Amino acid sequence: MGADRGAFIDQRQSMNIHIASPDYQKITSMHFSRWKKDLKTGMYYLRTKPTANPIQLTVDKSKLVTRQENSVTNGVKRKEDDRKLTPHKEAALAYSL
User: Is-contact 66 37, C-beta < 8 A?
Assistant: First the structure.
């Protein structure tokens, strides 16, 4: 262990620690235990878990196919111009809300 060989070498190992939920008491306790063992580096890196998990977003392929089928009207695909939002359509949409 680093504390055992630390007395015989000039440069001692750094401490990389992983704590799921660090708080003041845990970090202070860790520093004091390293200090009592006469280790030079209190802490080099502190790794923690994220406070929240990111939302996992995926697209359901069956809904994507349904969406593509809905964009076809009577077997004929809509024109690109019909899907564009013109200033007149934009105003009508804003007033309808």
Answer: no
Please tell me whether residue 52 adopts helix, strand or coil conformation. coil
Task: Inform me whether the pLDDT recorded for 72 exceeds 60.
Answer: no
| pLDDT computed for residue 22 by the predictor | 80
Report how far residue 32's alpha carbon sits from residue 78's, in angstroms, rounded to the nearest whole number. Answer: 71
Amino acid at 97: L
Q: What is the mean pLDDT of residues 28-33?
A: 84
CB 40 within 8 A of CB 51: no
d(CA 17, CA 44): 8
Does the pTM of the predicted model rise above 0.85?
no
Across all residues in the chain, what is the average pLDDT? 70
Tokens representing residue 3 in the block: 């504390």
The Cβ of residue 24 has, within 10 Å, a number of other Cβ atoms equal to 7
**Would you list the domain boundaries of the chain?**
10-47, 61-96
